[in-house]
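Hi C.,

You asked whether I'd gotten around to modeling the 158-residue construct. I have! Everything is below, sequence then structure, no commentary in between.
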Amino acid sequence: MAATLWFLAWWTGLTGLTLVLVSVPGPVEVAVAGAVAAGAAGLAHRMRHVAAVRPRGTEGLLRALVLLLPAALGGCAALTRALAGGAGRGELRRVRLREGADPGWAALLLGWSADTCVVDVPDGPDPDVVLHTLRCGRGGRGPLERVLVRRPEAEGER
């Protein structure tokens, strides 16, 4: 049942997207959109099955999504300050994600800011992420990092 719902969700979304992008869909466009979407939905289902990817922890996800825009603007401001003043200093460090945060989506959100680059997300039980951050005149951690990363004091890093 779950596989059928997964397939139908993909098929509906892809068919709808295709029909929205076509200015005036006729019967041929509807048939082609449905057929191509069925093939793509079948491929998406098969890839999900082969990769054995399942959504995991969502701890901090909602708060992080709310902070995407401020993080992007703050990162752009830090990058602009570094380019204008030349006072930017990069820092490579390993951070531990909060308990319950999935490394995949957390790394994607952490790298959203222009002053932060996710260098490595190691496999394994330790949710450590390697970040390269540009800190120029901005003390501490960015907004997404405050939500998704454990405080250094909690790990005994200081």
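If it helps when you're writing up: The longest strand covers residues 89-96.

Thanks,
B.
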